[in-house]
Specification:
This protein has about 270 residues and is an alpha/beta fold. It is built from seven helices and nine strands.
Length: about 270
Amino acid sequence: MSAIRRLVLLTSAVVLISQTTALAGARTPARTYSTPPANARFDYQLGGSYRPVRSVRIVDRDRTSHPASGRYNICYVNGFQTQDYQAKWWQEHHSDLLLHDANGNLVEDPNWPGEYLLDTSTAAKRQRLLAIIGGWIDGCAAKGFDATEPDNLDSNSRSHHLLTAADNLAFAALLATRAHDDGLAIGQKNDAEISARARRTAHFDFAIAESCQVYSECRYYLKNYGAEVFEIEYGGASFRAACRARGGRISVIRRDRDVVARGKPGYVYEAC
C-alpha cells in the first residue's frame, strides 16, 4: 500500500472517530440547573404543603410532597440523619449504616427523638448511603423540583467525635454531584462556620439558614453565598432583628417551629 493511500485511510479514520464522538456527546448533553432567585420571597412548608401566597416565588417542601405550581421548588431530604418515621426502616434494612457508639448503641440527635445519625465515616458506607439518599434526590428531580437541600450537615457535632466534618463534607460532595447530574441545584443546611469550605469542596449553590440570627452565624452564609441565603427564624424577636439587619439583602421569614400547614393550630408565617 502506498504512503498516500495509508494517509488517506488514516485521515478518514480520524474524521470518523471525531464524528462518532460528537454524535455521542450530542446524545448525552450535560444537565443544566438553575439556582433560586436571589432575595425572592420564599415559604418553608416541611410540615405540610399548602398553596403559597401570590408573592412567594420559592417553596421548600419535603421530598414526599409535590412541587408548587409556578414556583421555584426546593426538595428537602434528611441527608445525614434518619427521619423519626423512618427510623425503624433504617434499623431493619440498613442498621450498619447507622452510627453506633462503642457500646453498640445508636447515636441519636438529642434534640430530635428518633433521628439517628447516619454513618458517613468510610468511603464504602458513603457510597451505600448515596445509593439510598441519591435515589431520593433522583425522585425529587422526577417530580419536577428545581433544587434539593440535604439537612443536618452538622451531624458530626452530635456524634461524640465518631464522625468528622470531613466525613460529612465528603458525603455532601457525592450528594451535590448527584443533584447536579439530575439537573438540581443544592443548598447547604447547617454548619455555617464551614460555609467557605463547604462551598469549595461540596459545591453547594445556596444556603438555607435556620436561626442564624439566634446563633450569630448569618455572616458566614452571607460571605459565601451572597444574596442566595434564605433565612428562617422561629422567634418574633430574632425575626424582627434579622429583618432590620438583612431584610433588604436576603429573603428572611418567620415560621412556627413545627412548620405546620396553613390553617393548622400554631401556624405562623411572616416575611420582611
